[in-house]
Design goal:
Number of strands: 6
CATH topology: SH3 type barrels
Number of helices: 2
Strand order of the largest sheet: 4-3-2-1-6-5
Number of domains: 1
Oligomer: single chain
Strand content: 35-45%
Largest sheet: 6 strands, mixed
Helix content: under 10%
């Protein structure tokens, strides 16, 4: 399966271990020398409608990606759920 960066953006990211939804891919980090995908970035959610800023972005290394599906990306990353609330 091939996938463009545009198609990769906005896919839902789910933790393979417990089914926790981390969010949606907002950006990717590429190595411009090799052309390889380094990591995906899940944009931090807004706090109080953006008045209090936003949470930190979640960066997931390519090695932690288990499956890239049609609508969902499964990752092996262990994530602190309390930090996401």
């Amino acid at each position: 399966m091939t996938c463009s960066i545009d198609e990769l953006r906005n896919k839902q990211v789910v933790c393979l271990n417990d089914g926790f939804v981390l969010g949606y891919i907002g950006d990717v980090i590429l190595d411009t020398d090799s052309g390889k995908l380094i990591s995906i970035v899940i944009s931090g959610s807004l706090r109080l409608f953006g008045l209090l800023g936003k949470q930190k972005d979640i960066i997931i290394p390519f090695e932690d990606i288990a499956v890239i599906g049609e609508e969902t990306v499964l990752v092996k990353t262990v994530f602190n759920k309390d930090a996401a609330v």
